[in-house]
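stage 2 :: seqdesign
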């Protein structure tokens, strides 16, 4: 192999290894706003389109991302993540996950739910609250947040603006307030929802 080809291979390897989880230096801040409580879970179920998100992976070729939540057992649900690969002929990919709901811990409201979900796409129980619903009106939008320290010096923060509509005209007021006040526009990515 000539030196030139070796360089090209090296550059390709470096470019592909850039596709990794986005981390920030420091440690997770406190949740920027309270979670929805009480949480009307039954109204939250069904289909949500991902409209804007803090892309935790970059570059990403995932588009047309949508989630469907279905009730299964008491305090448990299944979720389906569907997406299309924009760099692979818009090939469909489907992932099945599941999760559980959080309850208000103390009586007399312990039968009520809070907008915190433990979700996972692997087998076995979801063990961490990783889907904190900071705002929703159930019928049009939801705003969700998550943060996790990856080690003592770095953290991974995520946020998602979901909508019942794949192409909403503008951000709902509450969502726009949360995004502009607490998040950095440069890390926000819009999900493409068609016509492909
Ligand atoms: C989830 O519920 C929807 C209707 O809301 C239904 O069309 C779909 O088949 C269900 N999916 C699963 C995996 O049960
Ligand atoms: C929910 O998902 C789990 C794991 O993917 C599966 O075993 C179970 O049958 C599903 N339940 C329903 C009601 O679809
Ligand atoms: C699409 O891009 C991702 C990384 O950005 C890569 O892993 C994948 O192999 C690519 N797929 C095709 C078909 O090029
Ligand atoms: C959900 O995650 C929290 C920690 O974030 C944990 O304390 C709790 O036990 C989990 N709930 C379930 C049902 O696994
Ligand atoms: C913490 O994680 C970051 C990002 O993954 C990494 O660059 C850094 O080396 C890690 N630090 C330690 C002490 O492991």
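stage 2 :: out
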């Amino acid at each position: 192999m000539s030196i030139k080809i070796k360089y090209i291979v090296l550059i390709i390897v470096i470019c592909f290894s850039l596709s990794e989880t986005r981390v920030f230096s420091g440690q997770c801040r406190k949740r920027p706003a309270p979670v929805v409580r009480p949480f009307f879970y039954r109204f939250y179920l069904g289909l949500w389109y991902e409209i804007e998100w803090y892309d935790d992976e970059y570059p990403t070729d995932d588009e047309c991302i949508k989630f469907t939540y279905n009730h299964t057992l008491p305090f448990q649900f299944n979720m389906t993540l569907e997406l299309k690969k924009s760099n692979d002929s818009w090939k469909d990919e489907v992932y099945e996950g599941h999760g559980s709901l959080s309850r208000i811990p103390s009586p007399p409201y312990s039968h009520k739910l809070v907008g915190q979900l433990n979700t996972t796409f692997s087998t076995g129980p979801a063990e961490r609250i990783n889907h904190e619903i900071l705002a929703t009106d159930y019928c049009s939008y939801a705003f969700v947040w998550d943060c996790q320290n990856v080690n003592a010096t770095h953290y991974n923060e995520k946020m998602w603006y979901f909508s019942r509509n794949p192409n909403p005209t503008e951000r709902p007021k509450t969502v726009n307030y949360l995004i502009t006040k607490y998040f950095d526009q440069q890390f926000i990515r819009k999900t493409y929802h068609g016509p492909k």
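stage 3 :: structure notes
- Residues 46, 68, 70, 78, 80 surround 2-acetamido-2-deoxy-beta-D-glucopyranose (ligand 1) (CB under 6 Å).
- The helical segments are 3-17, 41-44, 173-182.
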